[in-house]
2-(3-amino-3-carboxypropyl)histidine synthase subunit 2 (Aquarana catesbeiana), 335 residues
Amino acid sequence: VALQFSDDLLVDSVSIARKLEEATGAKMYILGDTSYGSCCVDEVAAEHVGAEILIHYGRACLSPSNRLPVMYVFGGKAVDVNLCVESFQNLFPDRQTPVVLFSDVVYEHILGELEARLARTYPRVVATKLSWVTDVPSGEVRRFGRSFSPDLTLWPDAYSLFYVGGEGPTLSNLLLTWPRCPFFSFNPETGEGRKEGLDVNRALMKRFYLIEKARDAQVVGILVGTLGVSDYLSALAHLKDVIRRAGKKSYMLSMGKLNPAKLGNFLEVDIFVLVACAENSLLDSSDFYRPIVTPEEMEVACNPAREWGGCCVTEFRELLPGILWPLGRGGGYLY
């Protein structure tokens, strides 16, 4: 059994491994240094020790994987549900507002209770459920390892979003994916509820600027940012084909965790495109020598038939053939 811990939980890894070995008799291996982001399941490292199952502890991006069975232990941080309900009521005075409830994975355990409490007075509230498998029931929308069932005649333009959690990559992804939806959050650590989105337009303009830089680039470096997310090989092949059709040259690079010094060795590359999980795709490239874009941004830059939709698509699997888009890009996808 392979045990994968995020950096902040490694201090507890030895005691947990010992207790599991005593309880099960199975051999435990601790994966101390992940190949890429700690939110991703490191199936490659697990295979090096011949693991038959992997247990992932801490925050996770919930990207689907296909090599090993995976179990998640998120941990459940405390939330004052009464204060959260009060904050929601202050932020949504109109009780007929359609709202989707999201949360960080460490607060997901309270969404069921929160939905039940709010449903008494807010009949159009829908809570997301964690879903890191591709077998999603018909009619459900799935994004970022979460599935939910909104009114498809109203989604997404008429909906507001409410997020339980603090600032981080999950919140940023949600804001940039649905920038036209009113967005509110409740931070359990501070007890503060607020309206989000003050810097969304600035962030989106920066992403559009990067698309223009990608259009002008002649040499593209394709960065392999994951070896575990399902269909990453198909995404790499798709990107190579798109770049070739645009008359650009590409190089494929795999170097683990990225930093400016590593990428600074490839001065002939005009721009990089990162194939990674959704939470690691929107990399701030201001400290790097060359810009770094997402696969969707590179496809918009290379394909004249594609127009930028004014939002970010960070799950590269959504660019592959076979995904149905009844709600339009950015609205969500169904299987």
Summary: The domain at 81-198 is CATH 3.40.50.11850 (Rossmann fold).
